[in-house]
Amino acid sequence: MSVKGDLSSSEKQLFNVISTGNVQEASRLLGCKDVRVNCLDEYGMTPLMHAAYKGKTDMCKLLLQHGADVNCNEHEHGYTALMFAGLSGKTEITWLMLDAGAETDVVNSVGRTAAQMAAFVGQHDCVTVINNYFSRARLDYYTKPQGLEKEPKLPPKLAGPLHKIIMGTNLNPVKMVMLVEENPLLLEAEALDKCRRVMELICEKCIKQQEMNEVLAMKMHYISCVLGKCASFLKDRDDKLDGLTKSLLKGRDSDGFPVYQEKFIRECIRKFPYCDVTLLQQLVRSIAPVEIGNDPTALSVLTQAITGQVGFIDAEFCTSCGEKGAQKRCSACKMVVYCDKACQKLHWFTHKKVCKKLQEQREKQEAEAAKLRMQQSNEEDKEANEAADATQKLKLETNSNGNSAAETAKPVSSEDADN
Hints:
Elements: H1 9-20, H2 23-30, H3 47-53, H4 57-65, H5 81-88, H6 91-99, H7 114-120, H8 124-131, H9 136-140, H10 156-167, H11 173-182, H12 189-208, H13 214-236, H14 242-249, H15 259-270, H16 278-287, H17 298-307, E1 328-329, E2 337-338, H18 341-351, H19 355-408, H20 414-418
Antiparallel strand pairs: 1-2
Helix pairs in contact: 1-2, 2-4, 3-4, 3-5, 5-6, 5-7, 6-8, 7-8, 11-13, 11-14, 12-13, 16-17
Domain MYND-type: 318-355
Subcellular location: Cell projection, Cilium
Protein name: MYND-type domain-containing protein
């Protein structure tokens, strides 16, 4: 590692090139023998830290390919490349750092981790990426026979599809069922049972390891519950997972609230096998007093606990699968949003029962809002008129008083003086 600020001319040039994002020039410089990819500037920042903070994705890839140390923390305040990635708000760069082996529990000089730094500046998507990261290598461990085992706990062909589910940040069970349906390798009860058992093992390991990871343990348990439910449906029914999806989406007639989905998520949390875990107790305290159908829902509480996202504020989520950023609204009621036509079609069987009612509610709310705006406008006009009248009256009084004073102070004429 270089001494802070002890840079060659080529290294100084590399730092300047990173700012411009010129990958070709950076690649040429990195081919020079006198350029050390882990050199430090006067603040202890490496080229990788600079590239991460400036949001230069291609530059980060290039530096990592040339051996950049992702866990260097020689920065004067103990920041790492992962912390700078979180501060930049670039989720892709955050993924790159994690895939390169970035440690998530390192703290800086003020005692904050990369996730906490990202949360501090409002980069919640990066917080979600960090909190939900689980390396493929940790899963691949279960694809190899251990000890006296003749076959692995997880067939290697299932590792990829299962890892995709683990890395997901959308905890809506409908979305998870969709991910299962996407891969034919998972559409077998036996395969799902094997995946479920591996999730339970990872959950147990997260609890019993020296530094307990309650969040990851809860997520693995929740995934195991969803996979177990999918397996039971495949064993008992011939309609694949369509029946499960409809059950999760079916809303009650009064307002369309998905009662079965709420009960299922609550049951998943209740079945968490480690009762003394603090996270479980927090979840129970948040959910138990809430009557089904009211806010917060079990899904929103669980999502906040696992991903670090604060509820569903300032974002639109698909009514069917819960995916963030949904923009298509029901053309009739305009009260529910979807990712696309597929999700809208999937949800229509239950939404059609309340669509007209929601439309009437929206129209009533809009009419009341318009009436309120009109009242406010009239009140504002009245106040403005009253203020104008008062101003005009004040001017008249001022002018009247001014004229009286002028008459009182009128100069005495010589005739008056003689008299």
